[in-house]
Design goal:
The complex is a heterodimer of chains A (702) and B (136). Chain A has 702 residues and is of the alpha+beta class. Chain A has an eight-stranded antiparallel β-sheet, with helices on both faces. In chain A, a hairpin with a 5-residue loop joins strand 4 (416-422) and strand 5 (428-435). The N and C termini of chain A lie far apart (110 Å). Chain B contains four helices and six strands, in the order βββαβαβαβα. Chain B has helices spanning 44-56, 74-86, 100-109, 121-132, and strands at residues 3-10, 19-25, 30-39, 61-72, 92-96, 117-118. In chain B, helix 1 (44-56) runs parallel beside helix 2 (74-86). Chain B is globular and about 35 Å long. The model of chain B is unreliable at 132-136 (pLDDT under 50). Classes of the chains: A alpha+beta (702), B alpha/beta (136). Chains A and B meet through loops of A and helix 2 and helix 3 of B.
Chain lengths: 702, 136
């Protein structure tokens, strides 16, 4: 056993004892850790005992040896040895003497054991004697402890001691063994009975002291615990007999039990057997110190030890391990090869592993909690966005209206907005837009855009003027973002739809089996794009039944394989319903037909009843400023409207002349044949003027 | 003088044209950025970085050659609009684009006012160089 550190006070250890000592600690450690992991319960009881501290305080001598503690966990047969736990709380006695160490508390000697324990443990050994706690383990104590034991327990204890003494080192041996066993054996050997009691004993230190019989029986284990319990650590120690070496007491015990001592141990065990049941605390005593040293709830392992003693004495050193049997033996064998420092390292690593396991469990719990909170927050964001997206009435006058919004699948969610509302003049207003930049940054902008543009519409501005004035106002506020918007008004009496787009796809207008092909030449740029907007406007007549679909580019840019959904597919989707669909149904159909939707989708549908007449574009308007007038824009626009090439130069010249004086609106009117192009001055000096103009134009019955 | 300055390649499925973006500096103020492949949510940021790098490198006349772009959506458009806003008064962003679908996107968005769309690279370069001369 290289590296094995003989306990202070041990002299002339029996080689067998030494070997056993080496084996048992490791086994104890492993068992302890297994026990800790598997059963977390009973340890609590043991802990307080250990806390008593006697173990810590006392057994500098013995405590140094962790193996000793291991004994604690395992039913230290040593308990049997201990018979007088009280006698030697500190020194290994506790277990060997069983009674003695534990009994330290009882003044008689048992009590001393405890007291001693605190002091240094070893004393406990002698403590049993009531007063000679200080005595060295092996020396005088022997007699003492034994005596004490004998007294305490009467039969078993004395026997243990006697054995110890007689055997070889006898006293010293016995003690040494006791110590050793306490360390190791305690846990293992006869301790079973002790073990069980030990946990209990640990706490109720005094209790042990009281029942002398218990002491004796428990001696190895139980007796000490109670006494030791007081000290917390002591329980272990006392049992073993030496606080410092709780192991000793216990260790020795098992060893003895195992047969090193042969008969002696047997008897001891017997004693323990008896004691264990009686002295529940006893077991604890023996184990207590060990446990205390280990500071792990080793009670669990003791339980089996307690049971063991019941069996025939012949199997003394097997009884404790009989339950764990093969496992313990295997572990012991494996462990026996390992030198002490390595065992310490292994024990330490096992504890570290335990700690890490606990920590990762806590982390997992925390992670789950955070995940739940995250889910709730996302839900809240969804709720807020839902609050910003209005639900339009199903009908506004003779027009059926519906709107729907479907956020993007991925990180691009957020940014689309829409509104459908009644205007004072009996008309209907529609706003559908998309703010660039997504998520939380876009949300406040959507509300700002919607309400600002709505206010201008309600004040009487035309869609184009709304975009132009609103664009100037909002450009400052949108900052880095920009927004594409379509603003429209529908006058049910005239059955005229007027819309203006700012960087936005124009609405689909379906009716009478055909659809309007919008002229998108010279489209206005988005709001807050650095350029003036609100220059283009389209007026469409809806004489018959019609379906108008306003949407955001998320609908037409949804992916179908490697292609875009596109306006053709959208048109097909709109006409695929038996009757005019609601916006929600449309978006669902689009979602079904697409593979990916990286952008938000919003749609607003106007369902207008009527005859079979198809919709007609009445006019296309382009507002010019000086810069545009002197570019190629007029030409582009006129060509797109179908104006004859020969007319263009004249028109361009007229437009440029006009724009010098005031704003100019170039209007191409379609009456069925070639478009008529007109120029008119455009002056939106105030909202009042705009309102007056609008009222007048409404009365004009276009 | 054409010197290859920077190339990034984006891996993509074999049947799709791999995304590639190349920058060539023509002179200290002009550079040509050629894009090939699809410009969508995943590749638009690369275009943005390239444009921003060019601007920070001192060029303020950017010619963006989109002749080989097979697909473009509003995210790329947002990039262009954003870059256009950051141009200083003397800066220009010219686009070379011939594909119908891509042209339509520019048309719908009304951004054809901000940056002129040319049919060929030569036209764009001529336009840009024409601007440099203070003849107006």
């Amino acid at each position: 056993m290289a590296g094995y550190m003989p306990m202070a006070g041990c002299t002339g250890e029996h080689p067998q004892v030494r070997r056993r000592r080496a084996h048992s600690p490791i086994a104890l450690i492993v068992l302890c850790c297994c026990a800790v992991v598997s059963m977390n319960g009973p340890s609590a009881a043991a802990k307080p005992d250990r806390g008593g501290g006697t173990n810590e305080a006392g057994p500098p001598t013995h405590q140094g040896s962790p193996p000793f503690e291991k004994h604690q966990s395992s039913p230290t047969p040593a308990h049997g040895n201990r018979p007088e736990p009280s006698a030697e709380p500190g020194s290994g006695h506790s277990h060997g003497s069983g009674a003695s160490p534990v009994s330290a508390t009882p003044p008689q000697g048992r009590g001393h054991g405890h007291g001693r324990f605190a002091q240094g443990g070893s004393e406990g050994v002698g403590a049993g004697r009531t007063g000679s706690p200080k005595e060295p383990h092996g020396k005088a104590k022997e007699t003492g402890p034994s005596e004490a034991h004998g007294k305490a327990t009467g039969t078993s204890v004395g026997e243990a001691h006697g054995k110890a003494r007689g055997e070889g080192a006898t006293e010293a041996h016995g003690k040494a063994r006791a110590q050793v066993t306490a360390k190791t054996g305690v846990a293992r050997s006869a301790v079973p009975p002790a073990s069980a009691p030990t946990p209990a004993n640990l706490s109720p230190a005094p209790s042990i002291a009281s029942p002398p019989s218990n002491l004796s029986s428990a001696t190895g284990l139980s007796t000490t615990p109670p006494t030791a319990a007081g000290s917390g650590a002591t329980p272990l120690a006392p049992t073993s007999g030496s606080p410092g070496s709780p192991v000793s007491g216990n260790g020795a015990h098992p060893q003895r039990v195992r047969g090193a001592h042969g008969g002696g141990s047997r008897r001891l065990r017997h004693g323990t057997v008896k004691s264990s049941p009686a002295g529940a605390p006893r077991g604890g005593a023996g184990i207590g110190p060990l446990l205390g040293l280990l500071s792990v709830p080793v009670q669990a392992p003791q339980a089996p030890l307690d049971r063991v003693p019941r069996r025939s004495p012949s199997s003394r050193h097997r009884t404790p391990s009989a339950h764990l049997g093969p496992l313990v033996r295997t572990i012991t064998k494996i462990v026996g090869v390992v030198p002490l420092p390595i065992r310490i390292v292994i024990a330490g690593l096992l504890l570290v592993a335990l700690g890490l396991g606990l920590r990762s469990r806590l982390t997992a719990v925390r992670a789950r909690k955070l995940e739940r909170q995250r889910g709730q927050l996302l839900e809240d964001v969804g709720l807020l966005q839902g609050a910003l997206l209005p639900v339009p009435p199903a009908r506004l006058g003779p027009v059926g209206t519906s709107a729907a919004y479907r956020p993007a699948d991925g990180p691009g969610a957020g940014g689309d907005f829409y509104d459908v509302f009644a205007l004072a003049s009996g008309s209907l207003g529609v706003i559908v837009g998309d703010v660039s930049g997504h998520g939380r940054r876009a949300l406040p902008h959507t509300a700002l855009l919607r309400f600002t543009l709505r206010a201008y519409l309600e004040a009487g501005l035309s869609p184009r003027e709304t975009l132009r004035t609103g664009g100037e106002v909002l450009e400052r506020q949108l900052g880095e973002s920009f927004a594409t918007v379509v603003v429209a008004t529908y006058q049910p009496r005239e059955r005229v739809l007027t819309y203006a787009c700012a960087g936005h796809p124009p609405p689909l207008v379906l009716g009478g089996g055909s659809s309007v092909v919008p002229i998108t030449a010279c489209s206005s740029p988005p709001i807050s794009s650095g350029m003036r907007t609100g220059a283009r406007q389209t007026v469409v007549s809806l004489p018959g039944a019609a379906l108008v679909c306003f949407h955001t580019d998320g609908v037409t840019e949804a992916r179908v394989g490697s292609e875009l959904f596109g306006t053709e597919r959208l048109e097909r989707a709109l006409t695929s319903f038996e009757s005019d669909p609601a916006a929600g149904e449309l978006l669902e159909r689009v979602a079904e037909q697409t593979d990916a939707r990286p952008d938000d989708m919003a749609a607003c549908l106007l369902s207008i009843e009527g005859g079979p007449d198809p919709p007609q574009v009445l006019s296309e308007q382009l507002e010019l400023d000086r810069e545009e007038a002197f570019g190629r824009r007029i030409e582009q626009f006129l060509l797109a409207c179908g104006v004859g090439v020969e007319q263009i130069p004249e028109l361009v010249r007229s437009a440029r002349a006009e724009v010098e004086r005031s704003g100019v609106v170039l209007e191409a009117q379609f009456d069925g044949g070639a478009p008529r192009v007109g120029l008119r001055a455009d002056n939106v000096a105030s909202l009042h003027t705009a309102h007056a103009r609008r009222t007048a134009s409404l009365g004009a019955a276009r | 003088m054409l010197k290859r300055v920077h190339t990034t390649t984006h891996p993509s499925p074999p049947e799709v044209t791999p995304f590639a973006i190349v920058r060539r500096e023509l002179d200290e103020r002009t550079c040509v950025i050629s894009v090939e492949g699809e410009l969508d949510l995943s590749t638009a940021p690369r275009l943005k970085w390239m444009l921003v790098d060019s601007l920070e490198g001192g060029s303020n006349r950017l010619v963006l050659d989109l002749s080989l772009v097979t697909f473009m959506d509003s995210t790329a458009l947002a990039v262009l609009v954003g870059v256009n806003r950051t141009l200083d008064p003397g800066g220009r962003l010219e686009i070379v684009c011939t594909r119908e679908k891509v042209l339509q996107i520019f048309e719908f968005s009304g951004t054809d006012r901000a940056f002129a769309i040319h049919s060929t690279l030569e036209q764009a370069l001529a336009f840009v160089r024409g601007e440099t001369a203070p003849s107006g």
